Amino acid sequence: AEVEKWILSLKNSKEFLKLISDSISGACKEVKSSFDYFEVNKGEHVDKVYISGGLVSIGNLEEGFAENLESDAEILKALPKGEKKLSEVFEGKEFAALKNSFSAAFGLIL
């Protein structure tokens, strides 16, 4: 619980991003390799990447991906606005901080 509070606090998000920058860079290198393979074999270019999961609650994560992938990156919202009012069912700071962790589960439900 303490780690989650530390990670999600705005004061420490830049510090956390700095700590995981090598991991982001390594993951992006693998993804970029797949993009390159796709481009060579299919002749199409990937213009945008959507990021989901628990770490997207950390501010500016998409910027690191965009920079490393040399492509646009956007957070895939697990609970799009204007859809069913799930936010009314799941209220509170705890859910707000963790809602992006549920993106795979919501995707399977849909």
Q: Main traits of this protein?
A:
110 residues, mainly alpha, two-stranded parallel ribbon, 2 strands, 59% helix, 7% strand
How would you describe the overall organization of this protein?
With 110 residues, the protein is mainly alpha-helical. It has seven helices and two strands; from the N terminus they run αααβαβααα. The chain is 59% helix and 7% strand. The protein has a two-stranded parallel sheet.
Mean of pLDDT: 75
Strand residue percentage: 5-15%
Order of neighbouring strands in the sheet with most strands: 1-2
Please report the total strand number as a whole number: 2
| N to C succession of SSEs | HHHEHEHHH
Q: What is the makeup of the main sheet?
A: 2 strands, parallel
Radius of gyration: 16 Å
- The geometry reads as elongated
Question: Kindly, what is the distance between the CA atoms of the first and last residues, rounded to a whole number of angstroms?
Answer: 30 Å
Structural class: mainly alpha
Number of helices: 7
**Helical content class:** 55-70%
Q: Which residue ranges are poorly predicted, with pLDDT under 50 across at least 5 consecutive positions?
A: none
